[in-house]
Design goal:
alpha+beta; PH-domain like; ten-stranded antiparallel sheet; five-stranded antiparallel sheet; elongated
Length: about 525
């Protein structure tokens, strides 16, 4: 010990970088020594940060001005999603073991909207020391709001290339377990299975619902959540003018073909990124549409297409025996070759943004509500190749700007995009624009509107055109017109009324307007 004393006197703790006056949450809770990346470090924990600096030896000359400058590293506690005691165990040993220290797991931004998990190991052999730090770290993590502790999970094993189960059990479930999130998993067996489960299950036992699948699966689960909310609120589910909000948030793990909602939420199709947004409790309120006939509610959803987009889906559904990618390519080419417009009447209520402030704005809003909005409705009638109604931007790999780039996730409006009848060549030019950064609406036959409500009334054909149409589209021949609602096929003969309802559901994710591609400032060790 006597020989070691001079050596200890020659060691010096590198001073922590000067910081501005401590804000709330910056006051040190604990300070201690851990070995990090084979270097002894002075570690300080506050409610907001975990920071450390290496402990460096003094200069041999005793000159303190010789850069005892050590890079201070920082982890923001809001980026930490799990902390575990690190132990060495023998083969077959499940409990106990030699304590080695603490492992902190954090969410790391890799750039281009991609998230990943990484671990920082704080090594110290003292049981009491590690237990004290472990308890404080857990208390801080338990204080974060919106982070789920229990989730209801739906896995569609038939999505895309039947890879949803593999994605969940190999990539998603391990992160849920690491974050101490309990899960109740239902592997769906038929269309509508998730909907029937959501109607009956005890939702209050869960902090959120997660869907592993494609756009159709996500749409079904979102519809089920909102339908359950109306039932619990005692509302008539055949006519919903002012729907109740979904009781819990919905998480989306992309495992389909286009994954529009996942792209729109996360800016990327990446299962780990989606999972970490759920684990971290990143919640985004999103607008939802109701699709109704005069007699009943058809669906809650985010987007819909009538005309070309719906006909393509209807044809693809008739060829389910084909592989997914081939089926969709075939349906697209065949529908394009048989391109026909739909004759219909569109009525829509444009979005009106009051300019007044304060009491005057409230007074006029009440007056408009009392006398109705009949004078604001507009109508257009004609032959349309496609009609899109979208409450979200609908980003995907084939449309990087989005199918409706001028709308947002929660601005209380829908984009109405009307493609008038034109030549096949011009229509193809319009479709190609979606894959580029050029404006896909800069054509004389394309009209766009920002609306609150839309009514679509098909006009039944008669005469020679009707006979020709019977060969091309059996659904229209029967008087039922196909609709593509969030990738799900629906057929209706009567008028369809679409309303947008602001921020009706919370989704785990971040608004793509706020996504950043910045690199992380802390290396994983």
């Amino acid at each position: 010990r006597a020989r070691a004393a001079p050596q200890e006197r020659r060691r010096k703790v590198a001073p922590l970088a000067a910081a501005p006056p401590a804000r709330a949450g910056d006051e040190p809770l604990l300070r201690g020594i851990f070995e990090i990346s084979k270097r002894s470090c002075d570690v300080v924990l506050s409610a907001r940060r975990l920071r450390w600096s290496p402990i460096l030896p003094e200069s041999p000359t005793g000159d303190s001005s010789v850069a005892l400058q050590a890079q201070e590293e920082i982890i923001e506690m809001k980026d930490v999603f799990s902390v575990k005691l690190k132990r060495r165990r023998f083969a077959g040993q499940k409990k106990g073991g030699t304590l080695l220290g603490i492992t902190v797991f954090k969410c790391l931004n890799k750039g281009e909207n991609k998230l990943t998990d990484c671990a920082v190991h704080l090594n110290n052999l003292s049981e009491d020391h590690c237990q004290l730090w472990f308890r404080h770290l857990k208390e801080i993590l338990n204080g974060f709001q919106n982070r789920p502790k229990s989730l209801k999970v739906f896995v569609n094993p038939n999505s895309h290339k039947r890879e949803a189960a593999h994605i969940y059990y190999e990539k998603v479930a391990p992160l849920f377990k690491l974050a101490d999130i309990k899960t109740d998993v239902t592997v769906t067996e038929y269309e509508g299975h998730a909907l029937s489960v959501l109607k009956e299950c005890e939702l209050q036992a869960f902090d959120g619902v997660v869907c592993v699948g494609g756009d159709g699966s996500v749409s079904e689960v979102a519809h089920g959540l909102l339908l359950r909310a109306q039932i619990d609120a005692g509302k008539d589910t055949d006519y919903v003018s002012k729907p109740a909000r979904a009781p819990v948030p919905l998480g989306v793990i992309p495992a389909g073909t286009t994954n529009i909602l996942a792209h729109t939420l996360y800016g990327i199709k990446h299962a780990v990124t989606a999972t970490l947004h759920i684990v971290m409790g990143h919640i985004q309120a999103v607008d939802v549409c109701t699709f109704s006939t005069p007699s009943k509610l058809l669906r809650f959803g985010f987007s819909a297409m009538f005309g070309f987009g719906a006909r393509t889906l209807a044809l693809a559904e008739k060829h389910r025996w084909m592989p997914s990618s081939q089926r969709k390519d075939f349906a697209f080419i065949k529908t394009l070759a048989d391109l026909k417009p739909e004759e219909c009447e569109l009525s829509f209520l444009p979005l009106r943004i009051p300019q007044e402030d304060g009491h005057e704005k409230d007074r006029k809003k009440k007056e408009r509500t009392k006398r109705g909005s009949k004078d604001q409705w507009q109508k257009i009638q004609g032959h349309f190749l496609n009609v899109s109604i979208m409450a979200i931007p609908c980003l995907c790999s084939m449309a990087p700007r989005g199918l409706a780039p001028n709308t947002r996730l929660n601005n209380g409006s829908m984009a109405l995009i009307v493609v008038q009848n034109t030549s096949r060549t011009e229509f193809i030019k319009h479709l190609k624009r979606y894959t580029s950064v050029e404006n896909q609406f800069n054509f004389p036959f394309v009209e766009t509107y920002t609306v609150q409500e839309v009514k679509v009334q098909p006009r039944h054909k008669s005469g020679p055109d009707a006979k020709e149409n019977m060969c091309l589209n059996a659904a229209s021949a029967e008087g039922n017109y196909p609709w593509n609602i969030d990738g799900d096929l629906m057929k209706e003969a009567s008028e369809v009324h679409v309303r947008v309802h602001p921020q009706l559901i919370d989704l785990y994710g971040v608004n793509t307007d706020d996504l950043e591609s910045s690199q992380a400032t802390c290396n994983c060790i």
